[in-house]
Amino acid sequence: MTDKKLRSGIHLDTKQISKDVSKELEIDFDEAAVELVGEMVFKKLLLYGSDLEAFCKHARRSTVTPDDVKLLCRNNASLKVFLEHECPTARNEVTNLKNKRKVTAIVINDD
Hints:
Low-confidence stretches: none
Order of helices and strands: HHHHH
Oligomer: single chain
Shape: extended
Radius of gyration: 22 Å
Structural class: mainly alpha
């Protein structure tokens, strides 16, 4: 998906969400404010994507894992608790993988 299509989709979703919230809370949103929120969401998602890519490269992987997402959200306590609740076993699976890699050893006998 191109940046232009992604940006457009995010802006459309932001407008729809603002309309829904406007009806529910009986308040109005300035169109410029909604556009700014849409642009902020787009920029933040680009940043998240870059961070997730960096975490996965640092771990010498080509796949983003739930632990990468948890690391991304480490400064948001409530979101971190939510993610731990939604995906509690991710850490155990990664730890088991690391242990499997460390077990390999070469033994040489000098008899």
